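Thread: Small-conductance mechanosensitive channel, structure

OP (GT): Posting the sequence first so everyone is looking at the same thing. Length is 205 residues per the record. Can we get the structure tokens written out before standup tomorrow? I want them in the notebook alongside the other entries.
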Amino acid sequence: MMLSSSFVSLGHYGQMVSAANELMRGFWAHTPYLMMALLLFFAFWLLAQLFKWFVGRLLGKRLAARPNVLLLLKRIGGTGILLIGFLCALVVAVPGFTPGQLISTLGIGSVAVGFAFKDILQNLLSGILLLVNEPFRIGDNITSNGFTGVVEDVQIRATTLRGEDGSRIVIPNAQLFTAPITVHTGRPPQPSASQTTDSHSEETL
């Protein structure tokens, strides 16, 4: 009886070793695909950085008065390039995979995905609107939801403030978009077109 149980244990052990060896063979067989996928994604990451640099050089002077819009263009373009790179790397890493399969999978669970990413999408859209409307700019001292600090960064998901005590405050963009905001940093008023015309006439006279 004990001898038969020993044979059974040895049989299970042999199956486990065979399964582990099969997994290792599969891993080493897919290693070249994984390396190619990583290199491809790294190339797209470099392309995203080059895109941000090019946009900064091309539109930096034109959008000097609206730095948030320039920041938005850089981040949307860079994120789009990284997303394309991720899909291409996924196709290389998983032979037989197509983006259509991913879309169909998301379509099946669209309701679950919608609930799961509801807050993320709200923060994303709020961040885009904050960057476009510019109720405040990076470097402004603002108060919102009881938090006061200097705006350090306006990301797609959240806005980062630096408090007076040096603390780092992260506020979701959805809350910041719907809550009242007090901007303590004074900005010089922009001269109107009529004022500019009058001053030009006085200089001419």
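GT: Both are above now. Quick notes for whoever picks this up: The chain has a mean pLDDT of 76. Strands lie at 141-144, 147-154, 158-162, 168-172, 182-183.
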